[in-house]
Amino acid sequence: MDEAACVALLEEHGVRPTANRIVVAKALASSIQPQSLAELERKISTIDKSNVFRALTLFKEHHLVHAIEGSSDGTKYELCYSHNHEHDDDQHPHFYCEECHETYCLDYTDMPEIQLPEGFKMTSANMMIKGICPHCNKK
Amino acid sequence: MDEAACVALLEEHGVRPTANRIVVAKALASSIQPQSLAELERKISTIDKSNVFRALTLFKEHHLVHAIEGSSDGTKYELCYSHNHEHDDDQHPHFYCEECHETYCLDYTDMPEIQLPEGFKMTSANMMIKGICPHCNKK
DNA sequence: GTTCTTGCAAAATATTTGCAAGACG
DNA sequence: CGTCTTGCAAATATTTTGCAAGAAC
């Protein structure tokens, strides 16, 4: 995703496209796999960790990224490709490799629907499968 | 669960039933909802945090508890009611209330099966639905 | 007596906030 | 100007380890 596309994406979600935010968005866009705050910080050494964090928090509020939890090594973030600004409607399960600690998107399959008991109101869901990825399996 | 039952449970899973471990197991057994390390520590003020942690780690290794992740406030632990000592075969989705931070077991429903691509090997799965629980919904 | 367990302290991680200076509208 | 954004420092929170004393086998 080039700079212009990033700017457009940010604006589309109501986020002012500052220099830092564009860099963070580009870093996310150029990553195949969801990234943790620490991983992003390592890639973007020019921006302070706290601002990467603030950018991610802001993106999350504006439904521009998903926070992916359950990997046992912190929250990971991925760009949200849906253009819905109100909800995260493109959530999908993920796979966490216990050896290399990478998180893979299983985006060929939808998030399973769970029937909730009376009175529970769902806002989001996280599904994380853990195991060994093909790459580590070969070793 | 009384003391004798706890001792039996620990032994059944190959964990030596020390005084501390029995207390931790009892605390878990008497909790309707999965507990975080901090919550357990608060309940069991007599035992040091590090030992509660070590007990939980040991229990996890012996498939006596499940670690539940994805709640955005740390790992929670619940007693495993399966008597399988090799695998966690009674995993189920959970519901995390974003208001009261309680985690509810949705154990009336099985963990959904996800078809993994060639080469991925699953060892466990976590599914967390987030939202508002019936109790907080009423407020 | 050798191994296991415990408590206390503290390291290692991870997340989040305060604040003053600077940028932007 | 007034608000938003940034960098740096540091507070919080959470998880994990080191170690010496004590308990169990």
UniProtKB/TrEMBL annotation, chains A, B:
Sites where the protein binds Zn(2+): C97, C100, C133, C136
Cofactor(s) for this UniProt protein: Zn(2+)
Recorded GO MF terms: DNA-binding transcription factor activity; transcription cis-regulatory region binding; zinc ion binding
Pfam families in alphabetical order: FUR (PF01475)
Repressor listed as a keyword: yes
Cofactor binding note: Binds 1 zinc ion per subunit.
Keywords tagged on the record: DNA-binding, Metal-binding, Repressor, Transcription, Transcription regulation, Zinc
GO BP, sorted A to Z: negative regulation of DNA-templated transcription; regulation of secondary metabolite biosynthetic process
Family: Belongs to the Fur family.
Annotated protein name in UniProt: Fur family transcriptional regulator, ferric uptake regulator
Organism of provenance: Xylanibacter ruminicola (Prevotella ruminicola)
